[in-house]
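Case study 2.
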Amino acid sequence: MILDDSPSNLFLAPLREALETVDAGTGKFGESSTIMLFGGSSMTHQDLITVVTSSESDNWLKHEDRGVFTFKLNLDIAIREKHSQDLKRKPFKESWAMKFPDPVAFTVIYELWYRSSFVKEYYFVSVDGHRAMLPYPDTSRFSNHLRITREQFAIATAVNGLGNCERYLQRFEISDRAETG
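Prediction:
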């Protein structure tokens, strides 16, 4: 569809711009980030993961009391904390999570949603008196070697804010391997 500057099409100009790409600047891994907004079209699973991993902490509207984090550039994308009686204050006792001034740690689950569709869940640990939410690392190779994926890192920066948890996330190695699950 071609839009001209006629009065009947002037109201569509912001929509046309919104359906194009947005330059999100330089990403946290040094790459240039361009985000497709997918306003009227469908989004694939890989498109969604690409948007999330290309996002920055300040791209998210944070409502921490509700445990809801909404992507500013596409309000159809949200991360929600799963509230379940089974998870309330469930202690987490792996050594890496208890090496903070406050050694008490708890399990928290975040869910990625696109529109009204549940997409995926991510297991996190609330550490150091709820000062940071850290993703479950892959410790399968070495128990003291903490590895997370870029996808987990992106969710962590969305729910924490990079400034809040930078010193906590320094303990992790960021891996390029694809997330499974």
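The first strand starts at residue 21 and ends at 26.
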